[in-house]
């Protein structure tokens, strides 16, 4: 999958100053909602929070992949942020998180949802890539690094 189909430059932020999981999810919700036409940022936030209640999407090594399904969404949309200071995200390794990739998909597309999550997790599994994502000095650089067809650091 070409990540540029779901992640746009205006949904990619580097060095965000959010200081909590809730604030980070609110920031992500505000980025994603306009891309979904007719879906409010509250709807996006509620979907992400409902998923977090099932278990943290903090996958370890400073990374979280919050995700959710929306009945009103017509296509998948993602957001990527890095945080200036890592935050507690209840990650499985109990380490704070500073890279967050969020994905919202239509409720009726569970296969696409799982496939996309798998591809993103593989991209974030590279320590070299994550080092570069964390070092990005602009939103544009972060977007370019993350969406290059061949991961820039594998």
Automatic annotation (TrEMBL):
SUPFAM superfamilies xrefs: Phoshotransferase/anion transport protein (SSF55804)
Residue stretches making up the PTS EIIA type-2 domain: 5-149
One of the GO biological process terms: phosphoenolpyruvate-dependent sugar phosphotransferase system
Secretion signal span: none
One protein family per Pfam: PTS_EIIA_2
Gene Ontology MF annotations: protein kinase activator activity; protein-N(PI)-phosphohistidine-sugar phosphotransferase activity
NCBIfam families, alphabetized: nitro_reg_IIA
Record protein name field: PTS IIA-like nitrogen-regulatory protein PtsN
Native source organism of the sequence: Aliidiomarina taiwanensis
